[in-house]
Amino acid sequence: DWPRALGRLRRAGFTHVRDLDNRDKTAVLARATGARARLTLRHVEPVHFPSFYTHEEVLPASFLDDRHITDLYLRPLEHLG
User: N or C: which end of the chain has fewer CB within 10 A?
Assistant: First the structure.
């Protein structure tokens, strides 16, 4: 029941969305929220549907060489201040 679910997401009034998976479905869901800040993150691979987001970041393979995995997931928060 995608149409109903997408409508409920829009009506929920989200202001910020962080999509840490960035797959086709999560990109559509992020966009459907209508949130003013929609951030996504990819590690090495290009961003799916970049126009669905207000902020995107692709991190190089070397990013985790000297960092913990939590640094990867905290990275999009930098765009929120």
Answer: C
What angle separates helix 24-33 from helix 2-11, to the nearest 10 degrees? 40
HSE-CB for 32 with a 13 A CA cutoff? 16
Beta strands at 37-43 and 16-19: parallel, antiparallel or unpaired: parallel
Q: Where are the alpha helices (DSSP H) in 1-81?
A: 2-11, 24-33, 69-74
Maximum Cα interatomic distance, the chain, rounded to a whole number of Å? 44
pLDDT-derived band at 61, boundaries 50, 70, 90 = confident
pTM value surpassing 0.85: no
